[in-house]
Each structure stands twice: as structure tokens, then as C-alpha cells.
Amino acid sequence: MQTTEKITALFDLDGVILDTETQYSHFWHAVGQQYLGMNDLEGRIKGQTMTYICNTFFPGMLREQEEITQALNRFELEMSYDYIPGVCDFIEDLRSHGAHMAVVTSSNEQKMSAAYRARPELKTLFDRILTAELFAHSKPAPDCYLLGMQIFESTPDTTYVFEDSFNGLKAGMASGAHVIGLATTNSRESIAPLCHCVLPDFSGFGYDKLLQVNK
Description:
Layout (H helix, E strand, L loop, with lengths): L7 E4 L9 H16 L4 H5 L4 H8 L4 H17 L8 H10 L3 E5 L4 H10 L3 H4 L2 E3 L12 H10 L6 E5 L2 H10 L2 E5 L5 H4 L5 E3 L7 H4 L5
Parallel strand pairs: 1-2, 1-4, 2-3, 4-5, 5-6
């Protein structure tokens, strides 16, 4: 796609901006084993809000929900928040071309406060940070990305979604945007059918290459 219109870039957070998904996988794997006797909870909840996780996997288990939430809050305060390779240079390149940019995450404000403590510059890298509290439906519903387009008054043809999880990729595709998959959490082969382009990370990727991504 070649365009003279201002583009909009909507980024998931974990596994796209921040290299945190492996840490979350360890946490949720342990939770699944301890509370549900499951060995694959971590794969089922990627890209989902905490509200969705509690309602779907721990319905009516109020004590357990509170225990898990408190444990997660402690875990997130101690996590490392390294950037995905190349993402900061890519964001700078987009900014130099006047792109609108937002984080669109299933994380809540509690999690974001922990991320800001580690990476205070996150607040200035993007025009907006849209969190779970703003969406009526969790990914794979496209609500979060449709909201991003609405905020910037952009169309699917000028909007690019960056995602790593299956649920997030499906949400991006359902929004009608150009979807770029990051093979940081799942394999290139597994996510390729759910997006228009796959990247290992953002190294060497810039605005000009982004415009070449076609639906």
C-alpha cells in the first residue's frame, strides 16, 4: 500500500513492545497447574483481559480470583520490561513521518502502573495508551482496535495493527486493518495465516517497508 494519508499504528504491548510474554507464560502455567490442574492455561489466555480470564476459567471462585490477582500484581512489579529488538527505532521512524500511534493492550491500569515504573518513557512514546478498562469485549473481538481507529479518525486502509497472540491477531484481522504479526510468542508458521505479514522483531523494519504491507 502506498498512501499520502497519515497512517495509524496500533501496537499490542506484551510481546510486541515489551519482551514479557515468556515471563507471563511461566506465571500462568503455574497458576493453571495449581488451581485447575491444567498444563496449557498460559496458551489459552494470551491476549485476554483479567476480567475475561476470571469469568472464563475461574467463574464464581472469588477467593481464588483475589489470590491470583494479588499474585499477578506482585509478579508484575518484579518483572523485567525489556523492549522487543528494533521497536524504539521503528517508533521514532513512524513519529518522524507524522504517524498516529497507540498502545492497545488487554492489560489493565494496575499492570500499566508497574510498566511505567520500569519504563516511564512509555507515556511519551505514544499518542494514547488504551487499556482493558476501555473495551466492552476482550480480544479476539475487534472492539479495542476499532476504538483506536475511532480515536484517530482513521480507516482500516490507513491503519496497521501489530500483534503476537492468536487472539490479538484475530482481533486485528476482524477490524479490517493491515495486520503485522510478531513471531516473538508463537512460531512464524502458526501465525502466518492470521496476518498479512510476519516479522521476527522490528530490526531493520521502518516506515517505508510498512507501506509495502498489503492485505
